[in-house]
Amino acid sequence: MERKQITVIGRVQGVYFRAYTEQKATELGLKGFVRNLSNGNVFIDVEGKPEALNALLEWCNTGSPLSIVRTLEIEDIDQLAGYTEFIIKR
């Protein structure tokens, strides 16, 4: 199990990015949350198996159908949070 914090930079608000992220993370068996940031970016705190995390990162490079992802900032976190589900935080 690993944990990552991902900041998605681009046109990622108002394009259902959080909903698609929740769907993809749940499909991959990942736990954590996604939320909008006040600067227009999206923040994801997620943990799970390395291969599932890599699949989510790959998906994040494209994102939802209407999003335009410019870049990802990815940070590896040493301590697991123990999330039990993946949710959208508002």
Structure report:
It is a single chain. The mean pLDDT is 97. Strands 4-1-3-2-5 form a 5-stranded mixed β-sheet. It has 2 helices and 5 strands. It has 90 residues and is of the alpha+beta class. It has helices at 17-27, 50-60, and strands spanning 2-11, 31-36, 42-48, 68-77, 86-88. The termini are far apart. The chain has one domain (2-71): Alpha-Beta Plaits (2-Layer Sandwich), CATH 3.30.70.
Number of domains: 1
Radius of gyration using CA atoms only: 12 Å
Count of strand segments? 5
Tell me the helix content. 10-25%
CATH topology: Alpha-Beta Plaits
Which architecture does the CATH hierarchy give at level 2?
2-Layer Sandwich
User: What is the topology, as strand order, of the major beta sheet?
Assistant: 4-1-3-2-5
Derived structural class = alpha+beta
Biggest β-sheet, characterized?
5 strands, mixed
Per CATH, the class reads Alpha Beta
Instruction: Estimate the global geometry from the Cα principal axes.
Output: globular
What low-confidence regions span 5 or more consecutive residues with pLDDT below 50? none
Give the ordered list of helices and strands: EHEEHEE
